[in-house]
């Protein structure tokens, strides 16, 4: 039985946390009837611990768990003890090992022997019982020649177990001569795996013995197989007690040969703990100057001053009733980002690609390029752009604006595919600003209300993780609950986790009175940058024709010229206005 099979049978309804089984109750103390999820078991190694330290604190290896549940380990195969007659090493063996800087003292300690002119490496267990003999030529191995072989039927264990003190760190190398090299440097507990970098039967054979070591230093070969071996051993032996020794040389023996025993000792002494995903040492974090942090400006002076721009690694929630201007405002934020050289990607659950593009083009072009057109059949007035303006705009943002294709029907749920597509855009196109418009149109399968809202909350959590993992800014549009005031964070429809996990929360509300040219009220109710709940608000003017928001005190912003205008002189400049590149 392996640890995963054990978890499936004896740890009911466990959840997996960072590669560990975490059941509802500890099998030893049962949580005292109230403390849930205190027990963790590694699904690779079976090592476990209960974190109810005062009332339980049980910890140990997989064999301890099996004993607790009265489970017998699988019958181990019958091994054949070595029958070959080996003799003391001849001068040929000693001279070859001397060339590799291994002394006769080390040869004698490890009981290195000889058979038919070949080096014989005897593998003794902790009781000094012989279980395996391996051989290799006492000379340079020629290309295509077998490098090593072994007695058939032997038991895989570690070379040098009989010399080890379990109160000291255990050193595991990839080859026998590497273990001898570490021992030559005066370091105790130097061992070697019996079958290279890809065979691990020795772990099960030595498990109870290995469990006695609090620290294990792994010194593999400096190549891809060696690195894979180290990675596998860390998982199997327990990352929390494994350290990795490295050098610029191929292996420990080459390090000894080229740089001497001091270099081998330094490599062992400087072995580093296994980097564990999910934990960092705070002292390793380099303080940052907030003025040096990259930000995406909104170019609305009041908003930039209030929040410092849109920070990378953050999620902003935008809420307000339907038709209040959330999507329009964020379209303008996309244009500002593109104008600053930032690459963007958007998901729109309501607009086709053509409608999204048309909306963005009208905002980018502005009032001076928009022309009136009357539908002769209905009399409705439209605003449109000449084809050459469309073409110039497309070339302006080519390579800097990407859109999720909402016509594709994925096999997976849409909240997962949004993250998948966004991740691709971040890696492939270096997109730094993302938009999800909106949470309600992302096709999250509906079920019971609690499950549906939980999935919405999980989706927001995935967006938060995505923003931080890829150092980008994500905007998410979320509608308020029906009948609720939209200027409170807990009024957002769905789980309270939605706004709890956001870095910023903004509310947009249409101003029906429209006093002092104010068409909308923008309110900041959360800004994690300085840990405050802002509750700051500002009135914004709105140009219905170009769909641009601007401060009433800054009317020139309504006619802002984006950088696409500077590339080639447009065909339809108003003669009374200077060209944008002629203005300071």
Please give a structural write-up.
There is one protein chain. The termini are far apart. This protein has three domains: 3-68, no CATH class; 91-273, Dna Topoisomerase Vi A Subunit, Chain: A, domain 2 (3-Layer(aba) Sandwich), CATH 3.40.1360.10; 321-582, Rossmann fold. The strands form six sheets. A nine-stranded mixed beta sheet has the order 21-18-22-23-17-24-25-26-27, sandwiched between helices. With 584 residues, it is of the alpha/beta class. The protein is elongated. It has 17 helices and 27 strands. Mean pLDDT is 85; it is low at 568-584.
Number of strand segments: 27
Can you say what the CATH homologous superfamily of the largest domain is?
P-loop containing nucleotide triphosphate hydrolases
Estimated helix fraction: 25-40%
Distance between the termini: 77 Å
What's the story with the biggest beta sheet? 9 strands, mixed
Q: Would you tell me which CATH topology of the largest domain applies?
A: Rossmann fold
Radius of gyration: 34 Å
Outline:
The chain has 584 residues and is α/β, with parallel strands linked by helices. The protein contains 17 helices and 27 strands.
Quick tags:
single chain; 584 residues; alpha/beta; Dna Topoisomerase Vi A Subunit, Chain: A, domain 2; Rossmann fold; 3 domains; 9-stranded mixed β-sheet; 17 helices; 27 strands; elongated; disordered C terminus
Itemize the secondary structure elements and their pairings.
Elements: H1 3-10, E1 15-17, E2 20-22, E3 39-42, E4 48-50, E5 59-60, H2 62-68, H3 91-99, H4 104-109, E6 113-115, E7 118-124, E8 130-137, E9 149-150, E10 170-173, H5 176-184, E11 190-192, H6 201-205, H7 207-210, E12 216-219, H8 224-237, E13 242-244, H9 252-259, H10 261-269, E14 272-273, E15 295-296, H11 301-307, E16 310-311, E17 314-319, H12 326-339, E18 344-348, H13 353-365, E19 371-374, E20 381-384, H14 387-397, E21 401-403, H15 414-429, E22 433-437, H16 449-470, E23 473-477, H17 497-500, E24 504-510, E25 520-527, E26 536-543, E27 548-550
Helix pairs in contact: 5-9, 9-10, 12-13, 15-16
